Amino acid sequence: MAQEQADSRKRILRLKLNGRWREDAVADNFLLVDYLRDVVRLSGTKTGCDGGECGACTVLVDDRAIPSCIVLAVRCEGRSVETIEGLASQGRLHRLQRAFHDKLGTQCGFCTPGMIMAAEALLRRNPQPSDNDIRTALSGNLCRCTGYVKIIESVQAAAGMAS
What we know:
This protein is an alpha+beta fold. Helix content is 36%, strand content 17%. A 5-stranded mixed sheet has the order 2-1-5-3-4, sandwiched between helices. Helix 3 (95-102) crosses helix 6. The longest helix is centred in the C-terminal third of the chain and has 14 residues, at 112-125. The chain is globular and about 45 Å long.
């Protein structure tokens, strides 16, 4: 009974999501990925492994790439959270989204949002990354459809768009 009560406790979560402040009532034990998908109804962040190992759920929290399946939503109180939906602006694809499309970095598309968010975190701190930098930044993201060559080429192309 005590566990049920603890699990059902809710609090108001205030965070900046894709550039806009919002408040929602969430349970203390609610994962960030579930908050994004079930409360906010943003479906771009995918649930893959539920253990922080595949990267499909990668989002940016204060500009850092994190697996949202192992972070409690309440840990993001007062912080900035960005999802794949927040990258496009005024109906125009973000440079990484455009590069993944142009360079065929997307296969089935399931891992793509997490790949793009991890790459965005990299490009924000290192606008001209080496191949090794890109590989390291994407090392927490798994793709079952490709050998990563097109994904790395996509990130390189996006870096070139910025210069």
